[in-house]
Design goal:
Chains A, D: Belongs to the binding-protein-dependent transport system permease family. The complex is a heteropentamer, with two copies of chain A (259 residues), two copies of chain B (259 residues) and one copy of chain C (303 residues). Chain B is 39% helix and 25% strand. Chain B has 259 residues and is an alpha/beta fold. Chain C is an alpha/beta fold and 303 residues long. Chain C is built from 14 helices and eleven strands. In chain C, the strands form two sheets. In chain C, strands 1, 2, 3, 4, 5 and 11 form a six-stranded mixed beta sheet that branches. The chains are: A mainly alpha (259), B alpha/beta (259), C alpha/beta (303). Chains in contact: A-B, A-C, A-D, A-E, B-D, B-E, C-D, D-E. Bound molecules: adenosine-5'-triphosphate (2 copies) and magnesium ion (2 copies).
Chain lengths: 259, 259, 303, 259, 259
């Protein structure tokens, strides 16, 4: 109980400090681009009404979810295939490195040709960026399946889908989650960027609109919302991860404690 | 029960060619407990993997109940040295023990019964819901043994199963294996490089030469069937057998031809 | 029939006599007439229903139109000429905006900070000037202003910067001058900045700045839809030109420009027809600047 | 020798296949945005002249190098500090998660206030994006220093800077490099994006110019150059990594081979 | 030489309070080789860490040559059980052995000499340039011993150093330790839970009770100074001593008070 309280205090201390510093430092600011935090906070409830949340934040979140889910499925599936066969890996690696190096925003015009300018395009852009960390981490994870465990599975006749489900994916799951974690931050960046190209709603679109319209305090509230969204998603992610990878954290902790 | 005839295994790869096992012939009768001893690196693991169908031999053959072994046979179970890498850390003890049974297609009820029974045999009935890494090394190895037992094998292959557990746990586990063997009448092929262990455990000890490996000597252990850590180990006959095997192994290391 | 059921997803399909068309726009003051026309029912009268998608620049709209995602799009004239000279199959169908043609009272201007010693475009030689897109209409027009004032445009250092960044950059001295359009122009002026030239006016009087366009394929296959769009657009332009307050009002529905800023904004002209002579002048200047791979074919491009 | 040849064939096979497919599929294309590969290849030498490489690719590469180096130094330094002290970590983590979630492109206007519109801004944008994977991975790596090694160091009086140099940073280096690897791809994306804001030269700027100018084959050559640049950097990175982390790969390989 | 007086250690944390060591008093004379045996978890490691200055005792004190130990003292070296986690895998064997000497401020020449000498003593003169993970477990543990030797300690603390190596290597290492002890006259405190090992190695065996730990018995080992694996272990006196210790430990486990 006291420990939990202490942890809460620790967690809140720095944000509180930073906000205070910002508040005080910006209090008398007359710079258009650097409005007082007070103004920003006052603008917040006016800007982020329920309607705007529904009309702008929700579509963005849905696109992010779509692109992210697509990247996760494709990345894990391809990664498992590539990681399982040495030959496939040797053949695919250079191409993957090449493709990975092309930033999705540059590909937008090309993606637009195939996917249009609607949500499909945005989801594709997000997926195109998120897929790499998932894919590459899955490859590494699948490669690293312990040979003793693999032989154990084989000696007990655990092959095919059962092997995939009970051994390969489970064993690779810590790496897969590491990839998913990276993909999450990339996904948020690309969500914003994809909405800069062609959109009529969305969080990124709104922020850029505020910028263009010189509604600077409103723009700042948008940046805050973006940060909060990312923070929220990361908390959710950690919660899921802790459930799925409970065994892994336990294993690591116990390995650290004893030989 | 188990016939090894002219077994030969050569590892080839990266231009290097290692003749791990040259020509091994021996037999294990039904219900026997045979220990294999040999210097480090002489090919004991290689031999056991060939017997277990995990490796294809370069020459010769392995027969289980008269049928040639070409893949992991259903009537055989393997216990590896590396307990930490043979149990799946993402599954609870019960699931680990039950997984091979699910693969065998047994009913849920039957599985539960076998798992409980096997864990009871190794004295870990309480640990069903624990994760492997929550257990000590000795307990983990007992879970691996329970998994093998639940599989109801006719032949049990054990590859230095106690090399990595502490001395006192090892003594307990040795007594456990002898107890299970006497109780269940399983055929056991037990590999070790601890001479005391081989003599203490086995009804027969097969001494292997250094690489390239052949059978150097087969030795009947004429100690009483009822053995215990305290008295058997200070029995003069034990000391004699131990000394004999020790000398054979020293000679094997030096490459002296057996008399 | 004014049913707007059905056909919501397949753009360009006609249902019950109403044809829904997708239009790609940039969410700025310039496109107010279309929104106004839609509201006033000018398009409905022609059996058209517009669906707007906003993009951040013409470069995102042209591929959309070329590949059939949109039936119509909004683009500045130079972009269209560049596209055509690169064999992108575009065809203008209606006028969009023109400059006011009044020196010092246009919606676009070259501006400098309040304490700047720069008085005339000639003084921009050796200075750093921000424009929002290099190698496009703004660069051409700024160069025209410099040339007209007797300077050498090749000595000007152009940097690319979004309009909304320019007031701050001017203020902090990171750039010496900026070519801005509304509403950034109003913002610059409110910070004490000065206009030194009306760059669009310096190209040609009554310069046609932007056009609505479609793809050549769509124009061939659906000449009647194109004609209806042209008619309705012309009507909308005329109405907007005559009712600037309504135009200002509608801008707030699709942009985030604060009403206070909007009141100070200089509106563009919305003539019904493009001014071919001014476009030819713009083309000449563009050719001098080396914007085009081959000379654009205005006969093919313009309606 | 033969193996090396074989590996080369494998590595080249898929790229060759893909290029062929592209070539054939696009051969008769009349779509402006999807020009024949032939046209693109022909345009390549005209577009990427020595002058352009010097005038556009070099500045981009320098900005990338600057931002990346800055991110690496800041990330490792901060990460080491945060990872070393549990308290500091508890205090900083929420703020880091929040800051991390704000995409650098959205912050461009703010960064421009402080860093101007020149190269400093671009370097800052790149660094602001690259710093996260480096920082977070360093924290993880530093946290995971083996307690037995830490105690060994302590018992031999290895403390302070010697400890940092010989133990902490070396032990965390695999994770640090994993972070640097991720940062590399993020860096390339941000290099392009930062040049979309306020630039007069650079690779990203050039590609966007081509796009806007409807010089589509030229744009395609730009995308190829970007891919090649990324590929090249990744090869260089791998080479450096293999040198610095030789011990780690050896350790992992040996851990996989034997218990 | 080494005096442990009324040592008490209580671990506190997360609300749990573990009294690992209750009250330990014993002394080790200069040049003595003392073995500590006790059941698993009885606090042997805790005791050794208190002696080595790695842990602060809750009560009582440890005196080295009359001076109180409050941090790792320069005249003392530690050999841990986990050889794999005590050598730095990123340093070659020579650097590993030399690092504590560099910290001590010795000249390069002197360091080279000590490293060569120490590695020679453990029979690994050839392995200077190898990485630890290129060596077998037994060799790694020998490197750890060489590192301790090169440090020229007056007291050597060894915490179950051979628990994880195979039986034959262990026998060799035991002989190595006895040899070095006789040759160099170091004071050695050796912790093990292998009774045979304790009796075989030590001049004196201290038997600890189960937790909370006190000294249960001190036993002089009156075997000849010259010992060897083959003959000593079958010596009737060895069997007697072994049986005696075994019974003490069994009693200690059951918590019976020593007679
Ligand atoms: N996959 C492999 N490829 C090449 N050589 C191998 C391979 N596995 C084992 N060897 C070699 O074959 C020989 C026998 O190895 P094996 O592991 O069977 O010996 P072992 O008797 O089990 O040794 P230990 O007592 O250390 O467990 C060794 O020389 C080893 O280096
Ligand atoms: N850091 C710690 N925090 C809390 N309890 C601890 C800690 N370290 C050890 N203990 C507890 O103290 C007791 C003694 O542990 P210790 O490791 O000293 O025993 P040991 O005799 O060395 O055991 P082993 O033979 O397994 O090595 C155990 O009950 C253990 O759980
Ligand atoms: Mg083996
Ligand atoms: Mg211990």
């Amino acid at each position: 109980m006291r420990r939990a309280l202490l942890r809460l205090v620790f967690a809140v201390a720095l944000p509180a400090l930073l906000v205070t510093v910002w508040w005080v430092a910006s209090a008398g600011s007359t710079d258009v681009y650097w409005p007082p935090l007070r103004t920003i906070v006052e603008a917040f409830p006016d800007v982020w009404t329920a309607e705007r949340l529904r009309g702008d934040v929700l579509p963005s979140a849905l696109r992010l979810a779509g692109g992210y889910a697509l990247a996760a499925v494709v990345g894990v599936a391809l990664g498992t295939a590539i990681g399982s066969y040495r030959r496939v890996r040797a053949v695919c690696e250079p191409v993957l490195e090449f493709l990975r190096a092309v930033p999705p925003p540059v590909l937008v015009p090309v993606i637009m040709l195939f996917a249009g300018i609607g949500d499909t395009m945005k989801v594709t852009v997000i997926a195109a960026g998120c897929v790499w960390p998932v894919l590459l981490n899955t490859v590494e994870g699948v490669r690293a399946v312990d040979p003793v465990m693999a032989e154990t599975a084989r000696s007990y006749g655990i092959t095919g889908a059962a092997r995939l489900r009970n051994l390969v994916l489970r064993s690779a799951s810590p790496q897969i989650f590491a990839g998913l974690r990276q993909a999450l931050s990339i996904g948020i960046i690309l969500m914003v960027i994809s909405e800069m190209f062609a959109a009529s709603n969305g969080l990124g679109f709104t922020i850029v609109q505020f910028q263009r319209g010189f509604a600077i305090p409103d723009m700042w509230t948008g940046i805050l919302v973006l940060g909060l969204l990312g923070f929220l998603l990361s908390v959710v992610f950690q919660w899921v991860e802790r459930r799925v990878l409970g065994w892994y954290h336990g294993l690591r902790a116990s390995a650290r404690r004893s030989p | 029960m188990l016939d090894v005839r002219g077994l030969k295994k050569v590892y080839e790869g990266s231009g290097r060619r290692v003749e791990a096992v040259r020509d091994l012939t021996f037999a294990v009768g039904a219900g026997e407990l045979v220990c294999l001893v040999g210097p480090s690196g002489c090919g004991k693991t290689t031999l056991l993997k060939c017997v277990g169908g995990l490796l294809a031999p370069t020459g010769g053959e392995v027969l289980l109940e008269g049928r040639k072994v070409s893949g992991p046979p259903p009537g055989m179970a393997f216990v590896f040295q590396e307990y930490g890498r043979s149990l799946f850390p993402w599954m609870r003890v019960g699931e680990n023990v039950g997984l091979p049974l699910r693969q065998k297609g047994l009913s849920r009820a039957r599985r539960g019964e076998l798992v409980r029974d096997a864990l009871g045999s190794v004295g870990l009935a309480d640990a069903v819901r624990a994760y492997p890494w929550q257990l000590s090394g000795g307990m983990q190895q007992r879970v691996a043994i329970a998994r093998a037992l639940a599989y109801e094998p006719r032949v049990l292959l054990m590859d230095e199963p106690f090399a990595a557990v502490d001395a006192q746990t090892r003594a307990d586990l040795e007594d456990l294996v002898r107890g299970l063997w006497r109780e269940r009448g399983i055929t056991i092929l037990f590999v070790t490089h601890d001479i005391d262990e081989a003599v203490y455990l086995g009804e027969r000890v097969i001494v292997l030469s250094a690489s390239p490996t052949v059978v150097r000597e087969q030795l009947k252990v004429d100690l009483p069937v009822e053995r215990d850590q305290l008295h058997t180990r200070v029995d003069p006959r034990f000391a004699e057998l131990r000394t004999h095997v020790y000398e054979q192994i020293q000679a094997a290391k030096k490459g002296v031809v057996a008399s | 029939g004014s049913s707007d059921g059905g056909g919501a997803s397949d753009a360009g399909a006609s249902s019950g006599g109403v044809t829904t068309v997708e239009v790609g726009l940039i969410p700025i003051v310039d496109v107010a007439p279309l929104y106004l026309g839609q509201e006033k029912g000018f398009f409905e009268k022609q059996g058209l229903k517009l669906r707007f998608t906003t993009a951040q620049g013409g470069a995102a709209i042209v591929p959309g139109v070329a590949s059939g995602q949109f039936q119509f799009g909004f683009s500045n004239v130079t972009s269209l000429m560049i596209a055509q000279s690169n064999n992108v199959p575009v065809k203008a169908v209606a006028n969009a905006i023109a400059s006011t043609g009044v020196e010092g009272k246009d919606f676009s201007a070259i501006t400098v900070g309040k304490d700047s010693p720069i008085r005339s475009p000639k003084d921009l030689e050796g200075k750093r000037v921000a424009i929002n897109t290099l190698k496009n209409i703004n660069e051409t027009s700024v160069r025209a202003s410099v040339r007209k004032a007797g300077g050498d445009p090749d000595k000007v250092e152009f940097v690319e910067l979004a309009f909304d960044q320019m007031p701050a950059a001017l203020d902090s001295g990171q750039i010496d001058a900026a070519q801005v359009v509304e509403p950034a122009l109003a913002t610059v002026k409110s910070q004490g900045g000065r206009e030194i030239a009306s760059n669009l006016v310096d190209v040609a009087p009554d310069l046609t700045v932007a056009l609505y366009f479609t793809s050549t394929r769509y124009a061939q296959q659906n000449p009647e839809v194109v004609e209806k769009f042209r008619k309705a657009t012309a009507e909308s332009l005329a109405y907007a030109d005559a009712h600037p307050d309504e135009a200002r009002q509608i801008v707030t529905t699709y942009t985030k420009i604060p009403a206070a800023v909007l009141d100070k904004v200089t509106l563009p002209k919305w003539p019904a027809e493009p001014n071919r002579a001014s476009i030819e002048a713009l083309m000449k200047l563009g050719e001098d600047d080396g914007l085009f791979k081959s000379t654009p074919d205005l006969d093919k491009l313009l309606p």
